[in-house]
Specification:
- 58% of the residues lie in helices and 3% in strands.
- By secondary structure, it is mainly α.
- Strands 1-2 form a two-stranded antiparallel sheet.
- The longest helix has 24 residues.
- The radius of gyration is 21 Å and the shape is elongated.
Length: 148
């Protein structure tokens, strides 16, 4: 007896077309927990990138944290986009990252851990603005059936 005759789809069934294997949408609790963890990751990334921004190798400044912050922020935006079709959900990690950077520089005591200059601007652009732009202007290459 074949799989078609018994009505079973077998292990080679496409999850997008098989209703038994289709992914369920995330519940509000799951989405809230995911966004909280993404916010923690974004804020931690911003603090670490700010701390390592003034790295020098001899007399040469080496702002590797700018590239690392940009890559990590883009990753967080992509992960957030998998949880919902909403662009604000996708942009949430980038917004948290930008707000954390602003809070660091406007914090008590007048300390400014991110220097005003090209390195500070590069950190803002790569770590926050480019991921925010990608999250809000993204075009999904293929529709995902598991999104809400």
């Amino acid at each position: 007896m074949t799989a078609a005759a018994t009505g079973s789809t077998g292990p080679t069934a496409d999850p997008a077309t098989d209703p038994a294997r289709r992914a369920r949408p995330a519940s509000p609790v799951e989405l809230g927990l995911a966004l909280a963890l993404l916010a923690i990751g974004a804020a931690t990334s911003c603090v670490l990138a700010s701390a390592w921004l003034t790295l020098h190798v001899g007399p040469v400044p080496l702002p590797l944290s700018v590239l690392a912050a940009g890559a990590w922020s883009l990753f967080l935006v992509r992960v957030a986009a998998t949880w919902s079709d909403s662009r604000i959900v996708a942009a949430f990690p980038a917004l948290v990252w930008i707000l954390t950077l602003v809070a660091l520089d406007l914090g008590p005591g007048g300390d400014m851990p991110v220097p005003v200059g090209l390195r500070g601007l590069a950190l803002l652009v790569f770590g926050g603005l480019i991921p925010l732009w990608v999250a809000t202007l993204r075009i999904s290459p293929a529709p995902d059936t598991h999104r809400r």
